[in-house]
Protein: Thioredoxin domain-containing protein
Amino acid sequence: MLENQPINPLNNYNYNQPFPSYKKWYQKKWGLAIIVFIIIVVLLLSLLVISTPGFLKSSASESGLIIDKITAANLLAQTPQRQLAEKLDRPHLGQVNAKLVIVEFSDFQCPVCQAEFPIIREVVSKYQNQILYIYRQYPIINENSALVSQASLCAHEQDKFWAMHDRLFLNPSSEYSTDNLKNIAQQAGLNLEQFNDCLTTEKYKNMVLEDTQDGFTLGIKGTPTFFINGNKLSGLISQDSWEKLLDQLLKY
Structure:
């Protein structure tokens, strides 16, 4: 009986008809819409990053915007921002009574700070009779940053801050320990017994925390961040940009 025979679905199939074509997902309307959306998002994010201060090398100073913001009046004004940033018990170079005060908030572990280090040292050396430069701690890169900051301040109490500072930047490491910090301290000419006691007791932990809190209050989002008489400037700044900026400000 035919009713009991299995049905073969291929019996009525036309083998001469063309095989159906299927579009790939990115060829369909909804796929094209997704691609266009992704491109727009990437473009918008790119514009946002490029417009962020510090993204372009010395973007603020190169464009002259910082000079435009700083007038003779606000250059000399003793604002709360200046009072919070400019602390003379921190490591400093130059003239205490200088008209221009540059404060740097930095992290020894920060790659951009490491790139800026030889530039700002050269600038400070050139203008040391006309400016005051203050170095403050802002250890935010990793868990070792605070330890390295404390080590530098332990060197400061022995009047060896800059010797320690330079060696930390010239020999950067993401894995600083108490032992290799002791080795660097020895190279910098510190009394190791005094240094060891200072570091193991965390003598300057509160000072590092105070610097960090002050930086947060001042609106610092990354390192290095500089304040010129309270006016904020962030990112990697070329020596030429520094010199043009300082030459202009010293005329006020």
In short: Residues 49-65 have pLDDT under 50 and may be disordered. The radius of gyration is 30 Å. Residues 29-50 form the longest helix (22 residues).
